[in-house]
Amino acid sequence: MLSNRDVAQVLDDIGDMLEIVGENLFRVRAHHRAAESVRSATEDVNVLAREARLTDLPAVGASLAERITELVDTGQMAYYNDLKEQVSPRVLELMRVPGLGPKKAKLLYDELGVTTIDELLDAARGQRIRVLPGMSAKTEENIISGIELVRTGQERMLLSEAYPLATRLVEALRATASVERADFAGSLRRMKETIGDIDILAASVNPAAVTSKFTTDPSVARVLALGDTKASILTTTGLQVDLRVVAPAEYGSALQYFTGSKEHNIRLRDLAKRRGLKINEYGIFDVETGRRIGGETEAEIYAAMDLEYMAPELREDHGEIDAAAARTLPAVVTLADVRGDLQTHSTWSDGLNSVQEMAETARELGYEYLALTDHAEKLKIAGGMTSADITARRRVIDEVNSKMSGITVLNGVELNIDGEGDIDYSPAILREFDVRLGAIHSGFGQPREQIMRRLRRAMENKYIQIIAHPTGRIIGKRNPYDVDIEALLDGAAATGTALELNAFPNRLDLKDDNAREAKKRGVKMSLGTDAHMTTHLSYMMYGVAVARRAWLEPQDIVNTYPLKKLLAALK
DNA sequence: GCCGTTTTCGGCCCGACTGTTTTCAGTCG
Q1: What is the C-alpha separation between A438 and A113, in angstroms, rounded?
Q2: For the domain bounded by A4-152, which CATH number is listed?
Q3: Region A251-272 average pLDDT
Q4: Domain spans of chain A?
Q5: Is the peptide bond before A508 cis (omega within 30 degrees of 0)?
């Protein structure tokens, strides 16, 4: 069965192939927009096709609905197959090299028979490209360095890898005399779970001084480009960072533009146009008079459009512009709203720090409480607690609580949901805990029915208050087990079980769109870092980012509540 | 190919850079 992702990939491929054969560019774009719509849809494309509701998806009209239905029904799409007769999928591969678009990729394929990136590299090194029309020795150089870039920066990096580096680079710029303002922009500012490259924006009246300072930062391995207003570097850790320097008066419009998302900006400009306004990276203008209305700050842009200011995390064209116009944007949660961490581990299972050390760090972070949710007995690999361990740890927790003020350590546990959906311990032991998580740690390859039976039984279990990392995915390493998200969310709503937003950077599970769907059903969520050492406690910001992208407000998240209210809210 | 408070036809975000262009095509974000 095809997933939304698979269908989206086919649509993207069709878009690329149409571009290669020289089709109308708006038709090309329509396919890419539909691909994104399918990819980010919360409903299963198979269900939508069966119920003839595909056209409910934005950017999917009658024509694409019919072709998508054919694809999910038969696994084939005649239109796609015909295109593949005309355009080799190999050409699409070549287009992944920066600098190679549809025209050049096709030319290389047609004239030189280049079908892989390896062959492309050989052709460039063998100086066989320069003889083609519009190509030169310079083109060959660009292709070679483009391939290098594709290979080094192939994988998108985790938000947690990009964020600290970008923060440091921005702070270095802000400390530079000629810099008036500096921020990172792009997907990093929107706090997406993975980042392609890092975009930084600065305001200065002396831009050349800024770019030259930037390219001499100690973290620079290679300068990819250096001009008066733009520079690109490759860091020693292999990340690409682009800097753009603008005039102070244009800073807000540039920041808005470079923060994106592309889809958000398209929607915004479309709306501007219909109101007789024009937005570009230099400001917002009245089309008729040409008068500049604003652009020094982002707030000016949105205000001139009569829109509420939108946090960067919301700018995905997922309804935020309509909500901003209607003044119904959510007051999204902030890190400061979080009063405690609800998934952490200590030396009593597989953590690296003691109860005392974890409590001290939690207090430094300004928390009111910290749930120590060490693994339960059955998870032997993680040093799960025996009943004797539980008693002993309880004494330690009581002692820490009695001598430390300003923080309450909660006696928690991460129970293991076994292959049948059962959990550890007798009711007598279970009742002792203040906070009880349930999680799947095995059987990731089981069929959907079995996974869902386990999850359903766990949610129906009166002792399990929170399902931890509900889909089990590890970004870049492991796909989620076969969860029926709709059924999971419905089950959580029906049983009053909270779902975790696991903040560990390679988990981020639930992910943003699922969490947003959960909120719509009234499901409460719980932020936990899954910290296995004190330094992990600071990962909370990444979980908050997911919550913000999911439009969650403090009342949707149980650990924004004061302690008493938290304990009352948990099942 | 999609879509509608200008429109069911005729638009569709918009600007910059690169390279080889003698006035512009291709690519990118």
Answers
A1: 55
A2: 1.10.150.110
A3: 91
A4: 4-152, 157-246, 254-325, 335-569
A5: no
* Strand B proximal to A443 Cβ, under 7 A: no
Q: How far is the CA of A54 from the C1' of B20 (A)?
A: 46
Rg (CA), chain A: 26
Class level of CATH domain A157-246: alpha beta
Q: What's the burial of A463, exposed, middle or buried (CB within 10 Å: 0-12/13-18/19+)?
A: middle
Whether A269 sits with its Cβ under 7 A from any strand B atom: the answer reads: yes
Q: Which of A519, A516, A513, A511 is nearest to A555 (CA)?
A: A519
In this complex, the answer to whether residue A270 has its CB under 7 A from any atom of chain B, a nucleic strand, is yes
Nearest protein residue by Cα to C1' of nucleotide B21: A134
Kindly tell me the burial class for residue A79, based on how many C-beta atoms sit within 10 Å of its own C-beta (0-12, 13-18, 19 or more): middle
Q: Which of residues 490-549 of A touch strand B (CB under 7 A)?
A: none
DSSP string, A452-485: HHHHHHHHHSTT--EESSTT--BTTTBPPP---H
| A55-108 pLDDT tens trace | 988 889 999 999 999 999 999 999 999 999 888 888 888 888 878 888 888 888
Q: What is the pLDDT of residues A436-488, one digit of tens each?
A: 999 998 888 788 889 999 999 999 999 999 999 999 988 766 678 889 999 99
CB proximity A165–strand B (7 Å threshold): no
Q: How far is the CA of A280 from the C1' of B15 (A)?
A: 8
Token pair of A377, please? Answer: 């007995």
Q: Is it true that A254-325 and A335-569 share their CATH fold?
A: no
Instruction: Say which residue the tokens 């924004």 belong to.
Output: A560
The C-alpha atoms of residue A571 and residue A557 are separated, in whole angstroms, by 14
Kindly indicate whether the domain formed by A254-325 is annotated with CATH number 3.10.310.30. Answer: no
pTM (2 d.p.): 0.82
Answer yes or no: is A127 CB < 7 A from strand B.
no
The verdict on domain A335-569 having CATH code 3.20.20.140 is yes
Task: Give CA–CA dist A569/A564, Å, rounded.
Answer: 9
